[in-house]
Amino acid sequence: MSLFVVDVEADGPCPGLFSMVCFGAVKVSPELQTTFYGQTRPITDDYKPDALKISGFSREEHLEFPDPAETMEAFAKWVEAESKGRPIFMSDNPAFDWQFINYYFHKYLGHNPFGYSARRIGDLYCGLQKDFFAGWKHLRKTTHDHHPVNDAKGNAEALLALVDMGLKLPS
């Protein structure tokens, strides 16, 4: 199995009604050097200006991004090339990140290389701490700045800190 931490920036709260702006992925390894960055132009006319603003891009810039089919094809090829065995999707918030990636993979490729599930880093930390409300984001080293590769890297750093606390990851 290979673990990938993914982060998504979008122009609204859900796919289909709104669009993914960009996303980043980091393959989990001690170095955290293997990354992917993708941008996708809008798939709907609707967007929430406050949501888009978080990504740091204007609507005009977003409209010039690559075709989502091309970006998702490149991402799928990258995941396949970087995977040993089944790829596992992990994120800060799969309820948000997963839904966009899953939707775009199915819409443009007809399948999701990650399958049908994802893991939330915070839930792993809560389990290790035996505390449903334990906060974990202090374990990040890379500043959370809404560039999705940086955010994914920070989240992967937190995951690796969990390993130092005793979490066993698949080899």
Automatic annotation (TrEMBL):
Gene3D superfamilies associated with the record: Ribonuclease H-like superfamily/Ribonuclease H (3.30.420.10)
Keyword Nuclease: yes
Keywords on record: Exonuclease, Hydrolase, Nuclease
InterPro entries assigned to the protein according to its UniProt record, in alphabetical order: RNaseH-like_sf, RNaseH_sf
Gene Ontology MF annotations: exonuclease activity; nucleic acid binding
Protein name per its UniProtKB record: Exonuclease
